[in-house]
Amino acid sequence: MPAMTLIHFVPLFALLLLAAGLDIRQRRIPNWLTLTIAIAGLAESFSRSHTVTPTQSIAGLGVGFLLPLILFILNAIGGGDVKLLAAVGAWIGPVNILLVFILKDLIGLVLVLSQAVCQGRLRVLIKNSTVVALNLVHLREVGLESVQQVGLSCKSVDKPLPMAVPIMFAVVSLLCLHRGGI
Q: Which of these, 37, 100, 108, 147, could form a disulfide with 166 (CB 3.0-4.6 Å)?
């Protein structure tokens, strides 16, 4: 991606850095911040040198909201994480938010595994992940409420992963690796 194009994303980078800092400290992403990111992304799509069209921005917002929604329903992530991905989608469009969704999960996996190893809880993480996966496979028999309760009770690490961090790294990685723009 040409340096000139990356300049358009400086506000997004700054806001994601703020979101990551707040998420690390408070394990919460404020609504005012995700709303600011979303509005800025939609507004940027109407600018003369936009990174995505207004239609792509709105589609990115929708896809960014729908992708993590099932994880939210299963209590695997918080509502702030869903809103943050939707807001980022307004900046980068529907296809790229799918790539960010995948990248953030890979980055998050590395972070969680590292955290579990450092805390000596890798075996617990693997056991709890297996229990949750088996409950998901048997969702019809055990019911959604049961899977949600199992997910909440399977604490494998001391603190939950602040998802704004892998989201920020995923966005930066995607934008830096792209050649020729979005």
A: 108
Q: Is residue 144 part of a domain?
A: no
Does residue 20 sit within a domain?
yes
Segments in the chain forming alpha helices (H): 3-7, 10-26, 31-45, 54-66, 69-73, 79-118, 122-137, 139-142, 144-153, 164-177
Residues in the chain: 182
How many domains does the chain divide into?
1
d(CA 146, CA 157): 21
Structural domain of residue 9, as residue ranges? 3-121+157-177
pLDDT tens, N- to C-terminus, the chain (182 residues): 445 478 889 999 999 999 999 999 999 999 999 999 999 999 999 999 898 999 999 999 999 999 999 889 877 788 999 999 999 999 999 999 999 999 999 999 899 888 888 888 788 778 777 776 766 666 566 665 655 555 555 555 556 789 999 999 999 999 888 754 56
Cα 23 from chain centroid (whole Å):
12
**Residue 122 token pair:** 């890798």
Contact 123, 117 (CB under 8 A): no
| pTM across the whole model | 0.81
- Whether residue 35 lies inside any domain: the answer is yes
CB count, 10 Å around CB of 83? 22
